[in-house]
Amino acid sequence: MVRHALRSAVAAVAGVAVLTASGCGLRVAPVTPTPTPSAPTWDVAALPVPSLTTILPTGLPQVTGTGLAMTAHPHAERTPAWTTPDATLNPTLALDSPGAAPAGWYVTGQTQTRDKHGTSIWVQVLIPFGRGALPSTDPHAVNHHAAWLRADDVDVTPTSAFVLIDVAAATATITSPTGATTVAVGVGIDGATGTPRGLCQISGHAATQAGDTVITNCQSETLDGFEGVPYAATALHVGVGQGGQVSHGCIRFTPEAFKAVWALPAGTPVVIAD
Questions:
Q1: 36 neighbors 123 (Cβ within 8 angstroms)
Q2: Contacts of 92 (CB under 8 A, 6+ apart)
Q3: Which residues pair with 187 in a beta bridge?
Q4: Pairing of strands 251-253, 179-184
């Protein structure tokens, strides 16, 4: 017990001095403290923000499955995002919330980490824009990329809406808080300009040459660009050809069915399956 108490007392002053035996007495030897690693410094305004034309940095995770039925909503106009949930590293990019409509990113994972600063909670979200590679380079690396956000930077809410695209049946099931409905849609032509499969999300709403358009974070896995632009976003919009393979990858709805899709917010998951 005495030996333990002495050891504790010595440890308590170890940052100032070390007591060592010297003959019959003690002498004080100064100690150089171990420097504490400095935290990375970064400016969120200087971080790259992904867009439709962006080729994303390497190392970002590609996700599978259907996610956690939650959406993350940012507190600020720009939110730092990491390749791995580690705040001792610099973030890889920033996710943007520039418009009047609130941003939302679908949550695909969560974890807890601990370091010298304490415990941190993280959420993994789908990146709203950008591709991991061009289809001509690596079609398997195009879609489904995610990043890690600090939970303190976002509000996470349950997601009660989703869209399920059945490519083989050429149908879309739209689920919202008011119920679910299944409608016929036009899909991409498999083998040439097929609709990409997997977990996507609604990333925004825009007016395009096709009219009002719901843009997802997924892009074509066969086309590097489309109609003169250097991207090929998989979008949901009004068009013809419901029930068949007719598009370059987009999902075509009737005007009446599209109303329900247009009302869905950013961060709504879109699952595309056979």
A1: no
A2: 47, 57, 59, 60, 81, 82, 83, 147
A3: 245
A4: unpaired
Average pLDDT over residues 9-34: 43
- Calculate mean pLDDT across residues 210-230: 96
> Who contacts 216 (Cβ-Cβ below 8 Å, separation ≥6)?
200, 201, 202, 203, 233, 234, 235, 236, 270
CATH class held by domain 162-273: mainly beta
Per-residue pLDDT band for 129 (boundaries 50, 70, 90) equals very high
Domain positions in the chain: 44-158, 162-273
Contact 269, 160 (CB under 8 A): no
Q: Give mean pLDDT, residues 242-264.
A: 97
Cα–Cα distance, 20 to 24 (Å, whole number): 11
- Predicted local distance difference test score (pLDDT) of residue 33: 62
Q: How far apart are CA 135 and CA 147, in angstroms?
A: 21
Q: What is the pLDDT of residue 28?
A: 46
pLDDT at 101 over 80: no
Residue by residue, DSSP assigns 188-254 as EBTTTBPPPPEEEEEEEEEEETTEEEEEEEEE-SS-S-BTTBS--EEEEEE-S-TTSEEESS-EEE-
pLDDT band for 203, please (50, 70, 90 cuts): very high
Distance CA 127, CA 79 (A): 12
